[in-house]
Specification:
By secondary structure, this protein is mostly helical. It folds into 2 domains: 81 residues; 134 residues, P-loop containing nucleotide triphosphate hydrolases (Rossmann fold). The protein is 59% helix and 7% strand. It has a 3-stranded antiparallel beta sheet with strand order 1-2-3, with helices on one face. A two-stranded parallel ribbon has the order 4-5. A hairpin with a 2-residue loop joins strand 2 and strand 3. Helix 1 crosses helix 3 and helix 3 crosses helix 4. The longest helix has 80 residues. The termini are far apart. 13% of the residues are buried.
Length: 247
């Protein structure tokens, strides 16, 4: 590679036509010819040296580009690590607020497996599943505790989101929370929860659609709970079936 480039530059500096003209028009002595050869050799050496310097410069430039890419990659990784650390810390505070709210709502709802004495044993695993002493909370307690767990979990999300300024819309809708467990004990616990300060002073709005007896409505209103009863004709009505006619 160097030989071809050197030959090219020698040709550019001393074209053949010029060398031929000089040879034909001037008579060079032996010393003069030696001097010309020395100059040609020196020029070729200088060109080769310059070419090597250019190659080294290009190689250095290439290495600098690779180093810069690695530095940029390290900087980006550091930024991502910093963001993850901040997000992880934020998730930790959110999870702690959620766990605290869940404990309070489970006790307020009267979950049979959770009491004021062992509420601190309630935790959330990596999938945010409620646990009690390393056991899934949904596998503990009575059948009616399942609806209490669902209601407590739903309300705790809204409460925790308010405390940490999360993205919850601040509205919770419970549709017939008494339908699956209509036993008197469960109904009494649910009505008792609605009358407690935790429910009445919640920093979010809760709408509950359910069927209540007249005595239960009066009980809630005496406890300061807003109860709205739709008046007028019911949307669903019993109808008399049409008698079948024989063909």
């Amino acid at each position: 590679m160097h030989v071809s480039k050197v030959s090219y530059w020698v040709f550019k500096i001393f074209p053949r036509s010029r060398l031929a003209t000089q040879a034909s028009t001037a008579s060079l002595t032996g010393d003069d010819r030696v001097t010309v050869r020395e100059k040609l050799a020196q020029t070729a050496a200088e060109l080769a040296s310059a070419e090597r310097a250019i190659d080294r410069t290009l190689e250095t430039e290439k290495n600098i580009g690779l180093w810069q890419s690695e530095i940029d990659s390290w900087v980006n990784e550091a930024k991502v690590a910093a963001i993850r650390a901040g997000v992880s810390a934020d998730f930790g505070s959110r999870k702690a607020a959620f766990t605290k709210a869940l404990r309070n709502y489970l006790v307020a709802f009267g979950h049979s497996a959770v009491s004021p004495d062992n509420r601190d044993s309630v935790s959330l695993n990596e999938q945010y599943t409620p646990m009690l002493n390393q056991k899934r909370l949904r596998s503990l307690g009575s059948a009616s505790d399942q609806s209490r767990l669902i209601a407590a979990y739903t309300l705790a999300l809204a409460s925790a989101s308010h405390d940490v300024q999360g993205l919850h819309p601040g509205l919770v809708v419970l549709d017939e929370p008494l339908q699956q467990n209509p036993d008197p004990k469960h109904r009494e616990r649910f009505l008792s929860f609605l009358s407690k300060e935790l429910a009445k002073k919640a920093p979010f709005q809760t709408l509950i659609f359910t069927s209540l007896r007249q005595g239960e409505i009066s009980q809630l209103r005496r406890g300061g709970v807003s109860v709205l009863t739709p008046e007028g004709t019911k949307f669903l009505q019993l109808t008399t079936p049409t008698p079948l006619t024989k063909a």
